[in-house]
Amino acid sequence: MAKTIEAIVAGVRSGEIDPVALVDQHLKLIEENEPSTNAFITVLADHARQKAGEIASRVAAGDPVGRLAGVPVAVKDNLCLRGAPTTCASRILEHWHPPYDATVLSRLLAEDAIIVGKTNMDEFAMGSSTEHSARGPTHNPRDMTRVPGGSSGGSAAAVAARFAQAALGSDTGGSIRQPAAFCGVVGLKPTYGLVSRYGLVAFASSLDQVGPLAGSVADAALLLEIIAGHDHMDSTSLDAPAPRLAGQAADSAEGLSIGIVRELSDGADPEVKRRLDEAAESLERAGARVESCSIPEVSYALPAYYLLAPAEASSNLARYDGVRYGLRVNAADTPTMNARTRSVGFGAEVKRRIMLGTYALRAGYYDAYYGQAQRVRTLLIRAFDAAYERYDALLSPTAPTTAFRLKERVEDPIAMYLSDVCTIPSNLAGHPAISVPFGTGEAGMPVGVQVMAPALAEAVMVRVATILEQAAP
Amino acid sequence: MSAYGSERQRRREGGARDYEGFECVVGLEVHCELLTATKLFCGCKNAFGDEPNTNTCPVCLGLPGSLPVLNGHAVELAMRIGLALNCTVQPSIFHRKNYFYPDMPKDYQISQYDIPINTDGYLDLPSGARVGIVRAHIEEDTGKTTHSGGGGRIHDAMYSLVDYNRAGVPLVEIVSEPDIRSGEQAREYVSELRAVLVAVGASDGRMEEGSLRVDANVSVRRPGEPFGTRCEIKNLNSLRSLGRAVDYETRRQVDLLVSGGAVAQETRHWDEQAGHTVVMRSKEEAEDYRYFPEPDLVPLAPDAAWQERISRAMAPLPAGRRRALLDSVGAEGPAMVERVATVVAQDLDGYVMAAVDAGAPGALALSRAANELAAACAEDASLLDALEPGHFASLVAMEARGDLTATQAKAVLAEMLTSGEPPEAIASRKGFEALDPGSLRRAVEEVVAANSAEWERYKEGEAKMAQFFVGQVMKATRQKADGKAVMALLADLLRGSAGAP
Lengths: 473, 501
What we know:
The complex is a heterodimer of chains A (473) and B (501). Helix content of chain A is 40%, strand content 13%. Chain A contains 16 helices and eleven strands. In chain A, β10 and β11 (446-452) form a beta hairpin. Chain B has helices spanning 3-15, 72-84, 183-199, 239-258, 304-312, 318-329, 334-345, 349-357, 362-379, 389-401, 406-419, 423-429, 437-450, 452-459, 465-476, 483-499; strands spanning 23-33, 88-89, 95-98, 108-111, 118-124, 130-140, 144-148, 159-163, 170-176, 212-221, 231-236, 266-271, 276-282, 292-293. In chain B, strands 2-5-6-9-1-10-11-12-13 form a nine-stranded mixed beta sheet, with helices on one face. Chain B has a three-stranded antiparallel beta sheet with strand order 4-3-14, with no helix packed on it. Chain B has a two-stranded antiparallel ribbon with strand order 7-8. Chain B is elongated. Chain B has 16 helices and 14 strands. In chain B, β5 and β6 (130-140) form a beta hairpin. Chain B has three domains: 3-287, no CATH class; 318-429, no CATH class; 437-499, Arc Repressor Mutant, subunit A (Orthogonal Bundle), CATH 1.10.10. Chain A binds chain B through residues 78-80, 86, 88, 93, 96, 98-100, 102, 197-202, 204-206, 232-236, 311-312, 314-315, 318-319, 321, 323-325, 334-335, 338, 358, 361-363, 366, 370, and chain B through 58, 61-70, 96, 98, 100, 102, 105-108, 160, 162, 288-292, 295-298.
């Protein structure tokens, strides 16, 4: 069993672990396996070694070090880091260096985490396989012929391949949880507003959340504690303190009531369903009351999401116009320059979603599309609220299948979109959800079980996830 | 009379127009840059005229990953505007208005759409008309583009430069009902609105610097008929442009209709030099802005206590100050109303009130303020810094008692503005003591005797020679003489000499 973050930090603080050696160990693995994995867009080897050296000297000098001292962390390439390129896996931002740090990265750095690299992703986080990247696809470390999921596929692969102890991703419709499930790691999407979005390059602002991917529930929970909490730079940031999650007792599920959402499980592969049933049984054994439940509204989540998210994206991505930064393809006049830049700079999936979103927001059609989708969103939130009157947490597969093969779905957008059918409802509701590895399915690929909880109920969610982790085959 | 007076005269004449039975219908959209220290959504300085692109940051440059945070002071100023315009101030939300333009960093503007902060108000004009206010909402300004090469026009420019210092500057857009009926009334509305915006501390009112920008929606109809097709007129950089453009556009539309044509809905550009409007874009080219609620901001719901605090702290508005001043000086009639308007517009009512409080006659105080002080103000507003209200009151009292002639009073006032001294000290240094009637008559007779040739010409009916004699008497008495009294004495002497054989 790999070390937890807690153990690493204790080791660094006591001097048993040399942060430089630890970083070198990870960089060596990257050097050996990254060419075939392609988990990173940028590896920050020099930065990481330098930072590790600083931490080592502070420890040697007896100075205090942070709660992530010496821990190698990978971060998704849509998080702004001063001094490194932030490309969002897009040609349009190929050479863009942000002049500021995302709040979540400032918080990691303030706790002495070591950022080893910026991870690969679907362009602007639009995709479920990390194949829509201008830098080529990431391969699943568990089976290099398969996708790692997406859009935070690089972060999930980096953790699975031990390139980093943990990673940050972003989750708009499942982009942390689905790749976590595909790669056999833990992935957590926090309550909307719990984690600052300042410095996260926007895809769909009302859905985007930054969250951790890690080898264990405890590591993910600790990372969340550190990045969570109010940020005055983000107006949608909740005025809530960071949750206390670490060190929670999770030996019993006594008193917990858990519902398995039928609409999210019925369509899953038989082997995925079997693992879900086993997960439910393990919770019952731990003392929880578990039963099947129905939330019919979740069936409308996917179509609503594919109106709302592209609509917001069409506006959020308008700024990539060749005027101020990023790619510019020159032309005789500004509108032509804008059009050529965007034609060359964006990939097919991004263009598809910009067109979908632009269409959905047209004058005269707003109410039929965007307006209707917002009403579905409201109904979904009410349905969840009603369910949470009966249940402390809800259970479902994280994805209907295990990791599919590279190129299998890339030409079939609908099939690709369907791999997020179980994760999207939590984004629309703004609720937290976590994916925990629970055995394997077809071809020995990992299966993820999703635990969903009401807004700001991360503690309950982590408790259930920890029980599942301990019971996992 | 000051230049101000002749301006008013010209405006009155411009007010009445004959449009062959048509009336013009105008609604105005006024963009007011708010006088905040920082921008609407970030901490960058809100300042005019700084070195280009020095007041910028990731937020107002719309860099990837940046997010807006609403400026509370801008909200407060918007609420003050709403209250001053008798609006309903309500909980509101922000929308994104999407369109591509290089000076708009995010390629969308954060604005308010169907739920603005202020709705349904009105503004009463000095002339008595009431103009309805549809809404007064908050939005961010864009950057400023300069086209270089090829004569500075966009079509043949070699390149364009964008200054993002203005990007994200807070604006309130005030949309009027189509209640305005002439170019003259449009000017009056903007002039009064500007005074209100300045009074509540929301704006510096400088149209020439673009801190107040006006677009006019103009249509024509026969009175009582439904509204005609409207054109939006842009590039109105002064009150003068506004009045001229509305009059021109009305004429253009009436001519079109009278000659059997139809007005096309379009956006037109006012060319101040040429004195006409030209088409910028037609309705078919109009953008679809794809408005949707701004997901990066939360709803704006000012609590009752905040609103109450703002409402209590509101400065008196121009209309109220005009009423108070009229009451205080006890004046009536259009000339007095106009003087009161001038005095309040130039922020001089405090002087008149002080004089009245000190017992000086209101009409005289009003006259000195509306003429001499207003003229000085128009030249250099900082001149008033030296003038104490108590000194102004003393001056008016001295003139009213006859201690100073009108000419002397004006001379003393001019010096008070530069030196800040009390009028008594200036008058005594200048040797201004009123002449007794006997001395004045002797002085006039001496001047007449010394200028016999001129006196002959005066006697023969050359009326302008009177000015010569007044001037000579003034010189002889070191400005102590009262011009009117000299004129009376000259007339008296003329009658006397005409009576002689």
